[in-house]
Design goal:
Length: about 170
């Protein structure tokens, strides 16, 4: 096999998820609010990511989950999914920002927070990474939710993220 083909195949191979987890943890550890919320990384899959936080440090005055914590956890989950996919594609030097978001608070949450995020319907993480590879910048819309223990939804968010190559 020639060197060019070997390099191309190497770039397409996904790094082990523990590398992705370690990279995300190192970024999240630098954010004071993340420490205060006691955010932890849950499941990481190629098309889905989960962040968790205990209710005990994310309470409002009513004893249920604080709305600011809910939206913060979903926003961080979206950032983490986009950042992880770029990292896995070999783009370690990127800046990812939330461009805009819409949040819906549907029901109080009286349990630990679990934010789940995926690409929005009609969006593709693969197309997003391909656009980034071609242009050095890209946008993607994601959908996040914090489920209730009974299977309902406490909070949902639709957000657009922008990624740029670091200069």
């Amino acid at each position: 096999m020639d060197n060019a083909r070997t390099i191309a195949l190497t770039l397409k191979q996904e790094p082990p998820m523990q590398d992705t987890r370690a990279m995300l943890e190192s970024h999240l550890d630098t954010i004071p609010m993340v420490k205060a919320m006691q955010v932890a990384i849950g499941d990481i899959e190629p098309t889905r990511l989960q962040l968790t936080a205990p209710l005990s440090v994310n309470l409002n005055d009513k004893g249920c989950a604080f709305g600011g914590s809910l939206v913060s956890l979903m926003t961080l989950a979206g950032w983490a999914l986009v950042t992880a996919r770029l990292h896995d594609a070999g783009f370690a030097e990127t800046e990812v920002f939330v461009a805009d978001s819409e949040v819906k608070y549907k029901a109080p949450l009286w349990d630990d927070l679990i934010a789940e995020v995926v690409a929005a319907e009609g969006e593709s993480l693969e197309d997003f990474v391909a656009a980034f590879a071609q242009k050095g910048k890209a946008r993607i819309t994601v959908e996040a939710r914090v489920p209730l223990p009974d299977g309902g939804v406490a909070t949902s968010m639709r957000a657009r993220y922008a990624a740029f190559a670091k200069r």
